[in-house]
Design goal:
40% of the residues are buried. The chain has 332 residues and is an alpha/beta fold. Helix content is 56%, strand content 8%. A 5-stranded parallel β-sheet has the order 2-3-4-1-5, sandwiched between helices.
Length: 332
């Protein structure tokens, strides 16, 4: 149902919902918004809803989500709304310049004269694109609203952040994601891991059936000395696990580092979730909380380096070296 997005947003992100509601109700919409926080489909949903609410003539405060205007915005075919996704394609300077060129003209459909551009996953924009965007934010065109989202605030220019109204999103509870994974038809053997690496319920089943997830899981099992020897992980990564395509390798390593983080966290919390082989590994790990914390730190830092602008082989080599070094330190 079309009204469900508003209801879900209010339930899951009450702070963001209230901020959007007040801005729309009082007609005090800022020139630019930056939605931040852990990866969650709620950021994209909220960005689209905000654009609908600014252009819709049928809704009350928020867009109705069902009229012709709202439907075309949802499908990204409305001429006064531009939606780019940095995960689908790196946002370039030309993309940002094209937005400025298109929005320098009067709104194509007239109406209330508003125009909205949404850039999802801004952290994947090139440095040149971010600098071009900064200039656009410094001198915003009349009636133009920017809605930007990021899963990694540290990779956004501080000068861009300072020119936006920042709305932080909180992560969905893991147990809720796990239930959604099972509802989506993900096999119980994989549901726990998939719910940790994927926050979009609509994509969970596809993730579980993907070669990327399968290879990442086998790398993780090798790290646990279950698939093969941990000492041979780098060799097997070169020979068997990595992909030729950089985009796939970004996902592969991101999932692998996420699984390492989840494992270390579960050891600290003594959680016994997931398939039997996994909680057996958690129960028998013998790692101290200090060592787990180091694994979480290393995996998180290496995951942040998984981008189009870094050598992914080097990222993996660094990760294994740092994890081995950390293991040696804690074994002294």
């Amino acid at each position: 149902d079309c009204w469900m997005r508003k209801e879900i947003l209010e339930q899951q992100q009450p702070v963001v919902f209230r901020a959007m509601y007040n801005a729309l109700k009082d007609n005090r919409v800022a020139n630019a918004y930056l939605f931040t926080g852990p990866e969650t489909p709620a950021k994209k949903d909220a960005a689209v809803l905000f654009a609908q609410s600014l252009l819709c003539t049928e809704g009350n405060v928020f867009g109705c989500e069902s009229c012709n205007i709202c439907s075309r915005i949802q499908e990204n075919i409305h001429p006064d709304v531009i939606i780019l996704d940095g995960k689908e394609k790196a946002v370039s300077k030309n993309d940002v310049d094209d937005i400025q060129s298109r929005f320098s003209k009067t709104a194509l459909e007239g109406g209330n004269g508003r125009k909205v551009y949404i850039i999802l996953n801004l952290e994947n924009a090139s440095p040149a694109a971010m600098n071009s965007l900064l200039k656009f934010l410094e001198e915003p065109a009349s009636g133009v609203t920017a809605v930007l989202t990021t899963d990694n605030l540290s990779r956004i220019l501080p000068t861009i952040i300072s020119r936006c109204t920042v709305l932080p999103f909180r992560p969905m509870k893991q147990e809720d994601r796990y239930a959604l994974a099972l509802q989506a038809g993900v096999p119980e053997e994989d549901a726990y891991f998939v719910s940790c690496v994927c926050t979009d319920p609509a994509a969970m089943k596809d993730v579980a059936g993907s070669d990327i997830y399968e290879r990442a899981l086998r790398m993780f099992r090798q790290y646990l000395n279950l698939e093969a020897l941990r000492d041979e992980l780098l060799i097997d990564y070169d020979i068997s696990w990595r992909f030729k395509e950089k985009e796939k390798n970004i996902s592969l390593l991101s999932i692998f580092f996420t699984l390492l983080t989840v494992y270390a966290r579960d050891v600290i919390l003594h959680d016994e979730k997931g398939p039997s082989w996994y909680y057996d590994a958690v129960r028998s790990s013998g790692m101290t909380p200090a060592r787990c914390a180091e694994i979480i730190r290393i995996a998180s830092e290496q995951k942040d380096k998984c981008s189009r602008y870094n050598d992914l082989n080097l990222v993996m080599y660094q990760a294994v070296y740092r994890l081995e070094e950390q293991q040696d330190e804690h074994s002294i």
